[in-house]
Amino acid sequence: MFDDFFLISLVPILTGLFSALSCTLVGNILVLRKQAMLSDTISHVVLPGIVISFLIFGNLGPYFMLVGAGIAGLTAVGTIVVLRTYTSMDNSAAMATTLSVFFAAGVLMIELTLGGNVHLDVEHALYGNLESLIWIDGKSLMSIFDPAARQTIPVELTRAIIGFVLIASVMLVFYRFLIVSTFDQTFAEISGVPVGIVSASVALAATLAAVISFDAVGSIIVVAMFVCPPAAARVLTHSLRDQFCLSLLFSALSAVLGYAVAGYFPILVGFETSISAAGTIATLSGVILACAILYSKRQRSYDFLDGHQT
Amino acid sequence: MTVDAISATELTVDYDGVTAIKDVDFTVRAEKLTAIVGPNGAGKSTLIKALLGLIPTSTGIISCFGASPKQYRKNISYVPQRAQIDWEFPVNVFDVVSMGLYGELGLLRRFSSAHKNRVHSALSDVDMADFAARQISQLSGGQQQRVFLARSIVQDAELILLDEPFGGIDAKSETVIVDILRRQNQNGKSIVAVHHDLSTVKDYFDDVILLNKTVTAFGPVNNVFTKANIEKTYGVSNLDFLTGCG
Amino acid sequence: MTELIGYNTALALVGALLFGFSSGHVGAFVYLRKASLLSDSLAHATLPGLIIGFLVSTFLGMEEKNSWVLLLGAGASALLGVVVIQWITARTKLGFDTAIAAVLSVFFGSGIVLLTGVQSVSVGQQAGLEDYILGSVSGMLLQDVFFIGLVSIICSAAVVVYRRPLTAFIFDPVLSELAGYAQHRMSFLLSLLTLVITIIGLKIVGLILVVAMLTIPAATARLWSTCVWSMSSLSALFGSASAGIGVIISALLPNLPSGAVIVVIMFIALGLSIVVTHLRGSNV
Questions:
Q1: Is residue B198 part of a domain?
Q2: Which residues on chain A are in Cβ contact (under 8 Å) with B108?
Q3: Is B167 part of any domain?
């Protein structure tokens, strides 16, 4: 069962891990800004962007997909603005309309042009395709140190790692601006923080995270990776720094354990079957959130920070 | 002769398709406590936003200590109305006051011990030094307002602009905040506040600006805060009980 | 007609027309209530219940195409979603947006787990399950149309009967309470209608896109009308027409999921309406 670990499991686990961490990083900001559903909108919207990129660049352009998705993301934001300006739609209706129209368009594009293409089909959009990330030359631990073997590492993993490093770096550098503009936008503006650019950057970071996660978990489950780990961390701590760290821990746990359970649990209980890794990851992150809420409830009568009853 | 804290000439601001304030002329004397009063919809908040550069002006000139808007931004600090904040945000008092320095620090400059001292000093100025580690959700209304005042003080700006600083605060907290403002004023700061309570204008402030889309009158309270001016601004009569003068 | 498009499609068409009508009707109020994303969350939350319903009906040896149990499961699951959203917002300081995003994704994710599990072990009946995600016009039975039609008529009737209390509740809950219609009752009614519309829409439009049925026709209608009565009626008509046209196109081009086609049609109608009303200068 574990013989083929490097062939079959290592790359999916790592891809899932870095995708989850990327989403969770951005998710912290979205949860603080009360914009959790933006992740839902963006992840639905990247679908047609990815499809168009794939049509133009084919499988040769995994990084070009970021361009396509980025354009889709910006178009979507523009659509939301236009809808809110020219109709009576509020934010929720504009987002609901945009996400369903873009997703529908993406689905139609897939069916009309690719129809049955292995790399990109509707199932993929619904729950990703982690299980397909096979490392042909992955024979043992030594393979990691072999440059020749490393050539066949699926590009999805490389992209996920690069994406994570990018997002983490940007967030570290922009940390102060992010926090100030989230906490008190007017004050941030007066202090000279470019709040428009900051908001756009958050949306772009979310788009990047959604695209690299598309391969792992598709369009809808990715929302769980954006929202559940930060939410779980949020209810457990009063400190922003602890929230970020805890959320990353929960995210990693969900991703790694999720894949493991999906891959090995059914076999353990006797089924010759497999269940979706993406779905398991999402479910696990939900379980962690539920546990966090239950645990935090027990604490509410005594505030450990200040040592007084609340 | 000290330069005026604020000088506005023929200021007109259009907002959302409506002319919020028109041909506004006034000066704010430096190192004084000035109130801006007027009825609802008078354009007080619009004026503040225009002073802060948050919304563009249609016509007119604003200068602050003799400098143009782009330059003087560094010299104004702002205390907003209470309602706009998410009180459950995971920050403590120290964090909030530190944010006052972020404009100065930018993205990359280190938050040094000198900066820490400034934060603690600002907290002392508002009598909140013991609360540095407290979550803001655990503060009372008056305490929250003092924290935002501290955030403003830490910037060491020459002009402090407040939007309804006493809104929704109990009487004792109000007294405390007035004392803080007076102390800041004694240290050389100019204070301008949008104020809603006409009965306390004379007690708290040196100067007043009466605004209702245009400026009815401005200047020292004793000269300008008259029954006639107030009635003209608010469009009503019989306000003797408010001004305490005939 | 049936010669042109076939018996199944004719059935689907009738179902779609009726469903589109009632979803437009209910959607008008969901739209005014600004609850569009909530209905999105509930729609996604139906998935696990759907699969469990399938398992139950298979276990009980029911006829493979028996939709009742599936839809019952879907409803129960969505209801559970509502409860969880309530729980999260009541017991934590997390925002409403976080609650609905969490329920949406976690429920859907566990539904996918169940779906893939079933696909691996089952022998073939589950092929129709994926149709509930994006919608399909094939495999519509007469009993399905009866069910959808009946429920649609009931929902529309409820909207018509309760339109004034619902309107009052949306704009001023306190006033509506004073007028004798308790807030929680109106809220419950609207949520219930949303839930029911979602359930009956699963077959035709699929759970991902059913939110569009509750949003886009309403927004389009709002461009043309100023009062709630005409808005909800127009919304019903737009919903119905879009669903009908979408079903026919989807039948003619069998690869295309009906939900996706219908959504695109509704969006085109919205876009045209924006242009026309804007040019007319009568944007109300």
A1: yes
A2: 173
A3: yes
Domain with B153 in it: what CATH number? 3.40.50.300
- Are C110 and A31 in contact (CB < 8 Å)? no
Kindly report, residue by residue over B78-122, the tens digit of the pLDDT: 888 776 778 888 999 999 999 999 888 888 888 899 999 999 999
- Show the domain range for A121: 5-132+154-218
Query: Cβ–Cβ of C104/A101 closer than 8 Å?
Result: no
Those chains having 3 or more beta-carbon pairs within 8 angstroms of chain C are: A
Which residues of chain A does C38 touch, with a Cβ-Cβ cutoff of 8 Å?
Answer: 92
Note whether B140 and B173 are within 8 A (CB). Answer: yes
For residue A88, which of C279, C34, C171, C265 has the smallest C-alpha distance? Answer: C34
The domain that holds C169 is classified in CATH as 1.10.3470.10
Contact between B152 and B98 (Cβ < 8 Å): no
Q: What's the CA gap between B198 and B210, in Å, rounded?
A: 11
- Between the two ends of chain C, the Cα-to-Cα distance in Å is 40
The position carrying tokens 């509750």 is C214
Nearest to B102 among A191, A237, A305 (CB): A191
CB pairs under 8 A between A and B: 68
Which CATH number covers residue A167? 1.10.3470.10
- Supply the pTM of this predicted model: 0.87
- Does residue B4 sit at the A interface (CB-CB below 8 Å)? no
Would residue A59 count as lying in a domain?
yes
CB C81 within 8 A of CB C107: yes
Tokens 């202090």 belong to A191
Query: CB–CB of C115/C51 below 8 Å?
Result: yes
Q: Which residues of C touch A105 (CB under 8 A)?
A: 260, 264
pLDDT in tens, C102-136: 999 999 999 999 988 888 776 555 567 778 888 88
Angle B124-B126-B132 from CA coordinates, rounded to 5°: 60
Minimal-distance CA residue of chain A relative to B79? A187
Q: Measured between CA atoms, how close is C190 to chain A, in angstroms? A: 16
Q: Which of B80, B92, B103 sits opposite A192 (nearest CB)?
A: B103
Domain encompassing residue C134: 2-280
What's the domain count of chain A? Answer: 1
Could C109 and A279 be called an inter-chain contact, meaning their C-beta atoms sit closer than 8 Å? yes
3-state secondary structure chain B: CCCCCEEEEEEEEEECCEEEEEEEEEEECCCCEEEEECCCCCCHHHHHHHHCCCCCCCEEEEEECCECHHHHHHHEEEECCHHHCCCCCCCEHHHHHHHCCHHHHCCCCCCCHHHHHHHHHHHHHCCCHHHCCCEHHHCCHHHHHHHHHHHHHCCCCCEEEEECCCCCCCHHHHHHHHHHHHHHHHCCCEEEEECCCHHHHHHHCCEEEEEECEEEEEEEHHHHCCHHHHHHHHCCCCCHHHHCCC
B142 contacts B169 by C-beta, under 8 angstroms: yes
ipTM for the whole complex: 0.89
Residue type, A228: C
List chain B residues with pLDDT less than 70.
1-2, 70, 83, 237-246
Per-residue pLDDT at A308? 39
Nearest to B170 by CA among B141, B136, B139: B141
DSSP string, A218-243: TTTTHHHHHHHHHHHHHHH-S-HHHH
Task: Please answer yes or no on whether A190 and B52 come within 8 Å at the CB atom.
Answer: yes
DSSP three-state, residue A308: strand
Cβ within 8 Å of residue A157, ≥6 positions away: A11, A14, A15, A18, A133
| Residues in chain A closer than 8 A to B76 (CB atoms) | 190
A115 burial level (CB within 10 Å; 0-12, 13-18, 19+)? exposed
Contact A96 C113 (CB under 8 A): no
- The answer to whether A303 faces chain C, any CB pair under 8 Å, is no
What span, in angstroms and rounded, lies between the C-alpha atoms of C30 and A177? 36
